[in-house]
């Protein structure tokens, strides 16, 4: 409502009405929430289906109000023109346009730090066939979305990093169709993640959009795997939508397999005698698998391997291996914002290969499907996670439901990716009873939908544990009484819930800083003491479980130099020193089965406010946002090379 158009007299009447009759106010500024409309179950393997891409240029409109405007849909029609006498104050055309897939932050200056609503709109031509069903599939939209097709609400969705789809068979029409999507990236305390994240909350339709066409009865999802490294039999299931019976045929031409299985209650159970070559980082063998049900057929490329824990080892295809990893965010090289294409995924993961990695941690949320495809092809094992990050409302049952829904979406999409060995339940969550119970349930839930992978969670080494370490080892060392071994017991009960524990530890970066500030110590001396003693640190995990270091690292601005003994924070030399000391610490562990230092590439973060140095970038990358290698890159590369040569 533009008050500038109202004379003083009418303004008085307007405010009188507004405050006296709340319903009048409500009709002007609608605050009614759109009812939730659930999405359909995920259709697996979108790239293997008959689909029309809806990527490209979409019209957009920023809605910066903190309430919601009424009646936008009414004006969403194409080329809406105000009729004589009609007051129109909203329009989804003739203004901003945004590329899909893409975050809005890097496309429009006004949206760089924006947390709020943007409307998207485009038209699409559909040649509707009666024998077909239609689904809109979204790689991801961050965070809340309302999907409208020809003016009707088709679905609502929350969660910014997982794929979802809605059936629109009844809403779509032959000819032109209007698609309008309201996206809101505002995060709340009962969301996953919450408002606090050490990464930029990129908003928008950040991944591919497809209009998928399937026969009336079709293959919705499937899972194929081997259960033991020695027997090799391929087992699994195929879920059919729109039919209870019939039969599914599986073909794997390279193995001369063609076998049919009956469908009962929409499910076919597979058991195929076969001896596929096993997928591994050194032999990322993928087989072309064709599935057919009636008129529907779908082709995938699937690798077969097993993963399990035995004593203090992780076994891949029955053989122990050390996970030489690196963490990464889903941010493209070249300061382009969110990565959304296969080429961008490949570009990122090739740096991991160059580091001699066999493993990546895709932090801190589910990455796009191109990343997983590329990992399968390049032979990189994967830690996959949902953004259960820092402090959630762990005692809120709705938050539990959201976590399960995100897990379900992630697993439904990625369960055939050989590269994924870990489903990670959470990152650095503060210990409490409610939170332990939350993870107990989430762990059970994950196991109930996929028991062919391991669960893990990144535990924080912090708070009381750091105080204890300081009291027992660090302060005495500062006074010249350094102990020979710094033994650290992890007490977090979450370590016992998951299959493999993981620890985020920042020796050589944060801890001496906290402690020096708290105890008013000379920061350089405190840091030097920590660096001199890091190699003595030894972690002990409950029940002697195998564990990984899911984070470790130090920040550096490329080109900033300082002699090693200067301990100049943010210099490349300091980052090198911290990595060298970390490598000594790594070598001192028992039961350590892998590491994913933090992080491959510098990434944008609203929490990094040291101007002139950080400028909203977390600088712990081993490469810059443009892909230039920092000196520490070569230190890790060499360490991994020595492990690789020894066959570890
Ligand atoms: C952490 C968090 C990660 C941060 C990182 C850092 O422990 O898990 O999200 O970005 O530390 O750089 O401080």
Describe what this molecule looks like in 3D:
The structure is a single chain. This protein has an eight-stranded parallel β-barrel. The longest helix has 18 residues, at 397-414. Residues 1-31 have low confidence and may be disordered. A hairpin with a 2-residue loop joins strand 16 and strand 17 (296-302). The protein folds into three domains: 4-215, Jelly Rolls, CATH 2.60.120.260; 230-304, Immunoglobulins (Immunoglobulin-like); 309-645, TIM Barrel (Alpha-Beta Barrel), CATH 3.20.20. It is globular and about 80 Å long. 23% of the residues lie in helices and 28% in strands. It is an alpha/beta fold and 648 residues long. Residues 198, 364, 427-428, 504, 551, 598, 618, 620 line the site of (2S,3S,4S,5R)-3,4,5-trihydroxy-6-oxo-oxane-2-carboxylic acid.
Features:
single chain, 648 residues, Jelly Rolls, Immunoglobulin-like, TIM Barrel, 3 domains, 8-stranded parallel barrel, 12 helices, 28% strand, disordered N terminus
CATH architecture of the largest domain: Alpha-Beta Barrel
Number of helices: 12
First-last Cα distance: 67 Å
CATH fold category name of the largest domain: TIM Barrel
Number of strands: 32
Question: What's the SSE blueprint?
Answer:
Blueprint lengths: L7 H13 L1 H7 L22 E3 L2 E8 L33 E4 L16 E10 L5 E7 L5 E6 L2 E7 L5 E4 L7 E10 L24 E7 L2 E9 L7 E8 L5 E6 L4 E8 L2 E6 L14 E7 L2 E7 L4 E4 L2 E4 L2 E2 L2 E6 L13 H13 L4 E4 L6 H10 L2 E5 L11 H18 L5 E8 L5 H17 L4 E7 L2 H16 L7 E4 L4 H4 L2 E5 L6 H8 L4 H11 L3 E4 L6 E5 L20 H16 L4 E4 L7 E2 L12 E2 L12 H15 L3
Parallel strand pairs: 21-22, 21-30, 22-23, 23-24, 24-25, 25-27, 26-28, 27-29, 29-30
Antiparallel strand pairs: 1-10, 2-3, 2-4, 4-9, 5-8, 5-10, 6-7, 6-9, 11-12, 12-15, 13-14, 13-16, 14-15, 16-17, 18-19, 19-20, 31-32
This protein binds (2S,3S,4S,5R)-3,4,5-trihydroxy-6-oxo-oxane-2-carboxylic acid.
